[in-house]
Amino acid sequence: MTRHAAIFRRAIRGTLAAGAAAALALAAATSASAQAWPTKPVRVIVPFAAGSATDLVPRAVFAQVSHQTGQTFIIENRAGGGTTVGTAAVAKADPDGSTILVHSNGLVTTPAIQANIPYDPVRDFAGVTPLGNVPLVLVISPSKNIKTLKDLVAAAKAKPGSLNYAAAGIGTPPHMTMERFRVAAGFTGQLVPFRGAPEALTEVITGRVDVYFAPVPPAIALIREGKLLPLAVSSSKRASVLPDVPTTIEAGFPDSDFDFWIGMVVPKATPRDLVAAMHRTTVNGLEQPATKEKLGALGVELMIMTPEAFDARIAKEAVEAQRLAKAAGITPQ
């Protein structure tokens, strides 16, 4: 080997070693950035009252995420305006991952029936992931002496407009679920809105309000205690915690199903790499056995989507919500 060849080979080895070191440094930096959320306390805005399903689910999830990351997650209930108060606050928040919104399908249904909403569910928010799918169960007081869904519909048709039904906010999934069922079953009734599920359930127990499509988490204990009678669930399949309760479709009412999700979104301007980091960290918390056990006890079924898939679902459901509002004869007010 000539002296010049040896020098050349040493130079090549040095270049390769430097390249490898640079690649390792880049990989380490990328790995570090993937773990960059959260780096400070996070506010979780819930536009519903404490005790509602949309409040209970994030408390279970982010307790685990807090445990894993060592950061504080502060659940802040901002009910009011049919969920628009808390939602609008997050739309205007800094897109730095320190403020997130946990909402339900109400993110897309509320704008379909309320005028002058100060945000757009598609343009102003970026999806991170759903946190769970929550069955809605139609409950009634046993004192009403109505045992089946067909009995309820028959009673409603016998006295048009006399049936009243609760909803935790106007345009929320419980409200739109009832409207979808009402349209499918062909009867009229009166909406009675409340700030949250606990208030609505109390009024149904007393009999002052006839029925309520309630999220399973706040209703399950009352059902088991016999204070409420479940007539049907709105989901496309039976709820695992209420296996003996039929779906509205099984009960004989086609095109009446409605799936209710609870999900995590952030301001639209949030950088995509930060959204990806938030997704990874949250999904890791969701997939822990302790979280699955807590959600399962509430009757919540795990539901995970990529940010891109969740964005697409939000956009699709926003269009469907407008169609449902028109079919139900609801004029935005």
Account of the protein in words:
It is a single chain. The protein is an alpha/beta fold and 333 residues long. It has 2 domains: 160 residues, Bordetella uptake gene, domain 1 (D-Maltodextrin-Binding Protein, domain 2, 3-Layer(aba) Sandwich), CATH 3.40.190; 98 residues, Periplasmic binding protein-like II (D-Maltodextrin-Binding Protein, domain 2, 3-Layer(aba) Sandwich). The strands form 2 sheets. Strands 2-1-3-10-4 form a 5-stranded mixed β-sheet, with helices on both faces. α4 packs parallel to α11.
Order of helices and strands: HEHEHEHEEHEHEHEHEEHHH
Total helical segments: 11
Q: Identify the CATH architecture of the largest domain.
A: 3-Layer(aba) Sandwich
How large is the radius of gyration? 24 Å
Q: Please give the alpha-carbon distance between the first and last residues.
A: 88 Å
Poorly predicted ranges: 4-8, 20-33
How much is the average pLDDT?
89
State the helicity in percent bands. 40-55%
Number of domains: 2
The CATH superfamily of the largest domain appears as Bordetella uptake gene, domain 1
By secondary-structure content and strand pairing, the structural class works out as: alpha/beta
- Main sheet strand line-up: 2-1-3-10-4
Q: Shape from CA axes?
A: globular
Q: For the report, how would you describe the main beta sheet?
A: 5 strands, mixed
Q: How much strand?
A: 15-25%
CATH topology of the largest domain: D-Maltodextrin-Binding Protein, domain 2
What is the CATH C level class of the largest domain, in words?
Alpha Beta
